[in-house]
Amino acid sequence: MFGNVNSNRTKAIAAWTAEAPAWVLVLADACDKTSQRAVADQLGKSSGYVSRLISRSYAGSYPEAEQLVRATLSAEEVVCPLYGQMQLKTCIRNRRREKSANWMHVQFAQTCPTCPNNTDHPHAQEA
Fold it and tell me: What are 60-80's pLDDT values in tens digits?
């Protein structure tokens, strides 16, 4: 399947060279298992978005795309300073949640801005 000249993995390796990031290969493999449209639906994006990421012609933020792919298509986990091991997608949801009076949400709102897992925060990307 991956040796197919028309496979998304082959296209990704051609565009990114042999040093294609793991998240791009995860994306390409997911597309090869189903379709770019199905994967795009999972990501909440268009199939053109997925195609541009694979072909390395996306004009937007690759770190943001990477985080979306890793959170959606892999079962990656991070260690939360407040609650320990959790899925990356849960971490992202918690830190992007609107502020509320819920004590857990308040704790996340206080801790997430300086958390090393928080790639949304400008200081997290400087490190």
Answer: 999 989 989 999 998 889 999
Are 49 and 43 spatial neighbours (Cβ–Cβ below 8 Å)?
A: yes
Instruction: For 44-64, give one letter per residue: b (16+ CB within 10 A) or e.
Output: ebebebbbbbbeeeeeeeeee
65/71 Cα distance (integer angstroms): 10
Tens digit of pLDDT for each residue in 93-109? 888 888 777 888 888 88
Q: Are 16 and 10 in contact (CB under 8 A)?
A: no
Q: How many CB atoms lie within 10 A of CB 103?
A: 8
Number of domains in the chain: 2
Same-domain status, 56 and 110: no
Q: Which residues are registered as beta bridge partners of 108? A: none
